[in-house]
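Predict the 3D structure for this chain.
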Amino acid sequence: MGVFVRDIKGLLESVSVDNRGAFERFYNLYYDQVFRFAYYCLGEKEACREVVTDVFFSVWQSRKRLKDIDNIDTYLYISVRNESFRFQARNKDLNRVSLNELLPLMEEEDEGSPEEHLELKEMREMLDKAIDELPEKCRLVFLMSREEGLKTKEIAEILSVQESTVRVQMKIAIEKLVARLKPSFPNISFSLLLMFIFNVIYRSA
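Done. Predicted structure below.
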């Protein structure tokens, strides 16, 4: 995020003493992160906006406690998870949108042949679709790891599950994604396919 821990602590302390300007900076700093995680939980943009609003309202309501929070990222993830569960309990039918709407394909660079660009685009589209079709818990764990860079222990804490459960869900996700992509791209090595799945190529392409 490019912000030092001490700066975050100072920002949280300012919010905790009713500094609305500090809260606005906090909101702008964390909005995208909170929205992404809400999307991982719900998969529907309008629902995410409602949940994100509820999360930040809750943060402001409990602002006096912010200065005592050691890990604001974990605090926000847990808040989003809880608000998402409450939203799902109120709304049984959600219209899921494709992961492509949240993770648009990056613009192609000039390097490489048109055929290579086309193959990479096809792989990206197939990967996004495969991720979108993973079982809900499996998809959530995978995206928390790949997109948010969270460790197994952090994911387990946020989701209130055992670390072994997180590892099992990650294993299932990888197996399903490889099984989905490999038949369509048989000439790509297993290691390169894993690099692609975990965003090494996806982010740098």
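The chain has two domains: 7-88, 112-201.
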